[in-house]
Specification:
It is built from 23 helices and 17 strands. The protein has about 600 residues and is α+β, with helices and mostly antiparallel strands. Strands 2-3-1-9-8-10 form a 6-stranded antiparallel sheet. The protein has a 6-stranded antiparallel sheet with strand order 4-5-6-7-11-12, with helices on one face. A 5-stranded parallel sheet has the order 15-14-13-16-17, sandwiched between helices. Helix 5 (about 180-185) crosses helix 15 and helix 21 packs parallel to helix 23 (about 585-600). The chain starts with a strand and ends in a 10-residue tail after the last helix.
Length: about 600
């Protein structure tokens, strides 16, 4: 993987090389192997490379001449159908000089233009400069695995893999408007698809492309969305086809020229990925490396969302597939100390220690491996969350994973944050998304609920998890692939009858039945358990003390925003319950407040509400 960035104003003054390098340096961690820039008058493209395929070639920015035109690309991602694309390009008369997918993607655009997107199977964010037409074509993969942010300043169009890159550009201010504030308090770590948090910065939504002409005019369009269609197949055929799609996706993503491993929690999703990955390695006469994540001094307490710890399941699964398994344990002190670093990696206060612990684990994995496969996205596609089968959770006109919408905002002075307006804003985002779902009139009530839950989960919850995984891993130059985020799987499973996806009232029954032969009985029947978090009481003490010290410091910008006495009430409350998703409870709320105060200062945030 890599980072990409650029400045595009072909009719304007020459690109300032130092500015472009400054933008590029902010994301050096994403591509530690090589950095380079391309500058041609008012066009500048920059790239930091993490070499995964064909390390000796594939350097970017890459330029080719084809049919009387010249094209230059910067690209972040992996194409998993590169062999097929190579054959198609050769039939077009293309002679390829490398074995890397960058060259394949560039020629694909040169041959087929925007139509190349229909042919791609992979994860990508890229920009291609067409010298003849003096246009810039940008695109992001269908499910949003790879990030792409853009902004305008005067007559210039700028883009980068992360908001921090754009904030390093001239004319881009770290200003957060009211919508940004309400996203912080009501929605984060989930964000609207186009939000870059800062007022001038926007995300290119998943499944979208964007063209900028020489005059700075932008044309953005959606090239992919989930579409309802009938499935004319028996249950057995559906299960067989699901198995074929899954094993194919995992096999494609096991290809790497650098050390590769998998994340193995012992849950259904990571076990499926690891089992198929181990089979691929055995065919090649090698052994798969796997990792599971735990916490030091963890006092596990079973809950509805986390019924059992991962430890024993991960070790059992590793033995079952014959992997070389490593258990990584994060110290509570490290998880607390890395909260600020995780905020900087994500460019906004995200998921507290759920972020900082992954930040720690990825740094440890990177000591031995450059690529990892993970089980993200299965819950969103196959229906693993309660809101898929509990209609009341998607019928309350608000995001179903936010159990207590006012939990965070109630800590703030209402005259500063305008909670009623904020709730109305977030609710409207929800309603607009539901209205955009493709819902056939003849769907059963259960199928309708499942389709709405799938769209909401994939367009919000899943993109948040993918963003988290991308930032925490790429902060250490670790590429994490997500085989379940294959558009072919999403398209097919979206239309499978809910009675098959939830057969016998079992979550993700289709996934279980499709992959049963790859799993021991204990994993096949195991209930969903999310990414693990620490239950060490000392962790909450560390975060509480750290937050209180910060609020007393002279550089705290959060202290003046909090409502008198509300934080103390939170600290003295005896009961504790999750208020977001399956993991965010009081320790995470305290850690998030700490992240917020750090972010306000470190990013020099500008906002009208800060003076309120």
């Amino acid at each position: 993987m890599c980072s990409i960035s650029g400045i595009f104003a072909p009719g304007g003054p020459a690109v300032n090389r130092e500015e472009l390098l400054r933008i590029n340096r902010t994301m050096k961690n994403r591509g530690p192997d090589r950095s380079a820039v391309f500058i041609e008058n008012g066009v500048g493209l920059a790239h930091n490379r993490l070499a995964v395929m064909d390390p000796e070639n594939g350097h970017q920015p890459m330029t080719v001449s084809f049919r009387g035109n010249i094209y230059t690309i910067v690209y972040n991602g992996e194409l998993y159908n590169t062999p097929q694309l190579r054959r198609d390009l050769e039939r077009e008369g293309v002679t390829l000089a490398t074995h890397c997918d960058t060259e394949v993607l560039l020629y694909s655009y040169a041959c087929w233009g925007r139509g190349c997107l229909e042919r791609l199977n992979g994860i990508y964010a890229f920009a291609v400069y067409d010298r003849k037409t003096q246009t810039l074509f940008c695109a992001r993969d269908r499910l949003g695995v790879k990030p792409f942010y853009y902004a305008t300043a005067g007559n210039r169009f700028l883009f980068a893999s992360e908001p921090k890159g754009l904030l390093a550009a001239d004319g881009i201010r770290p200003r957060v408007n009211w919508e940004g504030l309400w996203q912080l308090l009501f929605m984060t770590p989930v964000m609207p698809e186009e939000s870059g948090m800062f007022e001038q910065i926007h995300a290119l939504p998943p499944g979208h492309c964007l063209t900028v002409d020489r005059n700075g005019n932008m044309h953005k369009e959606r090239y992919w969305k989930l579409t309802a269609a009938p499935v004319h197949a028996s249950e057995e055929e559906i299960i067989d086809h699901t198995r074929a799609l899954l094993t194919d996706a995992i096999r494609r993503q096991m290809v790497s020229d650098v050390p590769l491993c998998t994340f193995l929690s012992g849950g259904l999703d990571s076990s499926v990925v690891s089992a198929v990955g181990a089979a691929v390695r055995r065919e090649n006469g090698t052994t798969l490396s796997t990792y599971s994540f735990e916490y030091e001094h963890n006092r596990y307490a079973p809950t509805l969302f986390q019924p059992a710890p991962d430890d024993a399941y991960a070790i059992e699964m590793a033995a079952f597939i014959g992997s070389e398994h490593t258990v990584l344990r994060a110290p509570s002190q490290a998880v607390a100390d890395l909260l600020e670093a995780a905020t900087d990696a994500r460019d906004f206060p995200g998921q507290a220690d759920i972020d900082s612990s992954l930040y720690y684990f990825c740094s440890e994995v990177r000591r031995r491996h450059t690529v990892a496969l993970s089980g993200e996205c299965a819950d969103e596609i196959f229906g693993g969350y309660p809101w898929f089968y509990r209609p009341e959770m998607v019928q309350r006109d608000f995001f179903p994973w936010i159990h207590a919408p006012m939990e965070r905002v109630s800590l703030f002075r209402p005259e500063v944050v305008l909670p009623d307006e904020g709730y109305a804003y977030a609710r409207q985002v929800y309603l607009d998304t539901v209205a955009d779902c493709d819902l056939p009139e003849d769907d059963s009530p259960d199928m309708r609920t499942a389709r709405i839950a799938t769209n909401l989960s994939m367009r919000f919850f899943m993109t948040s998890l993918l963003e988290r995984k991308d930032r925490m891993s790429m902060a250490h130059g670790l590429e994490v692939r997500v085989p379940f985020a294959d558009h072919r799987i999403a398209e097919f499973v979206y239309n499978v009858p809910w009675s098959i996806k939830f057969a016998s009232g079992v979550e993700k029954a289709l996934l279980r039945n499709a992959m049963r032969d790859y799993l021991p009985e204990s994993i096949f029947t195991r209930k969903k358990s999310p990414y693990p978090k620490t239950h060490d009481p000392h962790y909450e003490e560390l975060v509480r003390d750290k937050l209180l010290r910060r609020l007393k410091s002279s550089d705290s910008r959060l202290a003046s925003l909090l409502a008198p006495g509300k934080l103390q009430e939170l600290l003295e409350r005896r009961e504790d319950a999750t208020w977001f998703g399956q993991l965010m409870s009081r320790p995470q709320l305290l850690a998030w407040l700490l992240q917020l105060d750090h972010w306000l200062s470190a990013y020099h945030v500008e906002a009208d509400w800060l003076s309120g």
